[in-house]
Structures are given as structure tokens and as C-alpha cells.
Write a structure and sequence with these properties.
Strand content: 25-35%
Largest sheet: 10 strands, mixed
Distance between the termini: 29 Å
CATH architecture of the largest domain: 3-Layer(aba) Sandwich
Shape: globular
CATH topology of the largest domain: Rossmann fold
Structural class: alpha/beta
Number of helices: 4
């Protein structure tokens, strides 16, 4: 099996610099892409991205970078969606996204929608926030969660109907059950210090889980 190729996108909302630096210094990212004002976060860390992409209205200038992909401000896709599309075109497998959570709720919701869209297109998309991460999970698939003594895990359906939902190793369990995008049943489960996982047979969900 070919090695998994990982791309990281850094956008302009709340940035978990500690988590990014740990993964970056561990060599977990094969390619670093700045998305508009996310370039400034990377500059502050002394990290030179492989690419800068966006209309750069938030950054306020077109950055100097190894590769720059500039788009007009008037467009039908967000800069983050364009960046996810670029990562897919470049045939990356895993995509970590920083700076996509927090801030304006409309931007945050659109970023979550984009994560679900590209999960359905075959990317493994994880959005990293200040104290939690969100993984878009499209069935059939299983996500193993970090081993932690406590913490809240929520599963939100992005499809009209998701089937075969399984939750293991948490206070409450699901056993091959359906979940829809019009119910709150998947919200606020609890880790219990055991190996825990979320599985899905069909459909797409967002799994919110705490960072170690």
C-alpha cells in the first residue's frame, strides 16, 4: 500500500499554534498551504508554506511564497473550499485544517459543510480548533478516538440519513443504529478512559472530539 500523503491548510480563523507546531515538528505534514490570512499565522511561527492560496482580501497583500494561487474576490467558492479542491487535485489523502473553527458562525458552518463535501469525495478531512477537533467521516469507515480519561464527543449527521452508527468505549453506546440531520441524539457522549471509536456504514457525519 502506498504511503498516506498529508496536506495541512492554515486558514484565518482561530489558530491552535501549539497543536500545529507539534505535528509540524514531528514531520506529519508533507505539504503546507496557507489560505489567505492564514499566511500571517505561519509567518509568525517562522514556517514557510509550500503554497499560498486565496483572494488575499483578509491578508491585505499578495504574499511572497514558493507558489501563489490568487483568485478574484468575487467568486462562488470560499478560499477554504478552493484549498480543499486543490488538495484533492494534488492527490493528498489526509487533510488537516487549522483556522477553520471559531469566529463568524456562518464561516464556521460553511467550513464544516466543505469538510463533509470533500470527505464524500474521498479526502480524510480533520478540522483542528482550540480545544477540539472535528473529523468528517463518510461510511463505511471507523474513527479511533484519542485515549483519554474524560472528554465530550458529539456526532452530527450531515446526511439526511446515516446508517449503521456505532459508538464504542464511551459512557453511552450506539449499536448499528440510524442517525439523521434533524435530531440531536449524537450530541454530548463522554469518553471513559477506554479505547473508543465511532463507526458509520453509510452517510456522512461530523465527529467532534477533544484534543489530548
Amino acid at each position: 500500500m502506498a504511503d498516506v500523503r498529508t496536506c495541512v491548510l492554515v486558514a484565518a480563523s482561530q489558530f491552535n499554534a501549539r497543536d500545529f507546531r507539534e505535528r509540524y515538528e514531528a514531520g506529519l505534514f508533507d505539504y503546507v498551504m496557507a489560505v489567505d490570512a492564514g499566511f500571517a499565522y505561519l509567518e509568525d511561527l517562522g514556517v514557510r508554506p509550500d503554497m499560498a492560496l486565496g483572494d488575499f482580501d483578509s491578508l491585505g497583500y499578495v504574499p511572497t511564497c514558493q507558489r501563489v494561487s490568487r483568485f478574484p474576490r468575487e467568486k462562488d467558492q470560499s478560499d477554504l473550499e478552493l484549498a480543499l479542491e486543490r488538495a484533492k487535485t494534488m492527490r493528498y489523502d489526509d487533510v488537516y485544517v487549522y483556522g477553520a473553527l471559531g469566529g463568524r458562525i456562518d464561516f464556521e458552518l460553511s467550513n464544516l459543510q466543505a469538510a463533509a463535501k470533500y470527505s464524500e469525495a474521498g479526502l480524510c478531512v480533520t478540522l483542528v480548533g482550540e480545544d477540539c477537533a472535528v473529523r468528517a467521516l463518510t461510511g463505511p469507515d471507523v474513527l479511533d478516538l484519542p485515549l483519554m480519561d474524560s472528554g465530550t464527543v458529539s456526532v452530527i449527521a450531515m446526511s439526511d440519513r446515516c446508517t449503521g452508527m456505532i459508538e464504542r468505549g464511551m459512557v453511552y453506546s450506539l449499536d448499528d443504529e440510524p442517525l439523521t440531520n434533524r435530531e440531536s441524539r449524537g450530541v454530548s457522549n463522554e469518553l471513559a478512559g477506554l479505547p473508543a471509536s465511532v463507526g458509520i456504514a453509510s452517510g456522512t457525519v461530523l465527529v467532534f472530539y477533544p484534543l489530548p
